[in-house]
Amino acid sequence: MKSWRYIQEDQVSAYNGLATDEYLMDMYSQDVLPTQATLRLYTYREFCCLVGRFQNIHAELNLEACRSENAQYSRRLTGGGAIIMGDGQLGICLATNHTFDADNTKAIYQLFAQPVILALSQIGIKAHLKGKNDLVVDGKKIAGLGIHVNHQGAIQFHTSLLVNLNVEKMLRVLNIPLQKIADKRHLRKVEQRITTVSRELNRVISIDEMRKRIKDCYRQLFDVNYDTIHITTQERIKINKLADDRYNNEDWIFQNSPQPDMTGMGLKKSKAGLLRTYVALKGETIKSVLITGDFFGLEKLFSAIESKLKWHPIDKEKILGVIEESFALYGAPEDLQPKEVFDSIWRASLGAMREVQYTYSGSCYYPKTDAEQKQYLKNRIINEILK
Prior knowledge:
Blueprint: E1 2-12, H1 14-29, E2 37-44, E3 48-51, H2 57-60, H3 63-68, E4 72-75, E5 83-85, E6 89-96, H4 105-122, E7 128-130, E8 134-137, E9 140-149, E10 155-162, H5 167-173, H6 197-201, H7 207-222, E11 224-228, H8 233-247, H9 250-253, E12 264-270, E13 273-282, E14 285-293, H10 299-308, E15 312-313, H11 316-330, H12 338-355, H13 370-386
Parallel strand pairs: 1-2, 1-11, 3-4
Antiparallel strand pairs: 2-6, 3-5, 6-10, 7-8, 8-9, 9-10, 12-13, 13-14, 14-15
């Protein structure tokens, strides 16, 4: 029987909570630890806002509300969407350097999510994986999953289980775009898209009860014994440094934020996630593109597209060609099509065209008047939409 390390913590900060998970994963990169994996079941202080690795934090969080609510905020290493974490949400982290014969990310999701599904089934809640990273009950999300695999192959598996949730508080600090619920028009409220363990049971269940059940289910399904080893003083020193260097560092937190001259923004919902794209123009040339969103594992593809479109003319066919070439080079995900990325970029480009003032229009002898300039822009936008 194999041995796993078990860690239980409560009321951790946004910065140390994320730093601890990364530290545990990195320790398995060295392949010198006595245990095959570490299971950490923990809660955050009340409360923390965490955005996904590739999201624009300004678009996903109401930062003014976060500050007034005294809510800490940071950026996860894993992809996905913005969440709140506090004493009603159970954080699950499994760190390991072994894939347990799972040969791809999807298989790892399914494998490591099974103990959570089993624990819920034991109390009468039937949950299943939907899409890439949601655990749902009757179509309502009850947990979000995330995975990060570092360069050495070590794995960090994340789950945020909604044992209880203050929806009103969540809506005060998270920005929920309409596009994210566009395919669920029959639901009148955002609350109807999510559920909690307590809501499904019609009674309040404690974090400790769910934590014990999940711990037992991981032990049962993976046939392991636990060594309860608390974070040591030396480990805490390293974790605190990582928290300061990354998760409490504005350079990390505010990355993937659009530049001031990115005046166009386009949204596109896809099976891979919600794409939020920003574009800056110089005349009729794309100056820069930024693709953000709650996606997973697409950073190389999107970085290539952003790089190739820099100083690229606004031309539908050529832009789509760049995107298709990048898909061919970096692989085409089943849940994302080149046309969906193009739509997001094109909408952002049209938005930027509405804002930009073409200083080179007309001639030096007969420049266009402001009224003529506005009419020119209006006509060009209409023509592009009708193409």
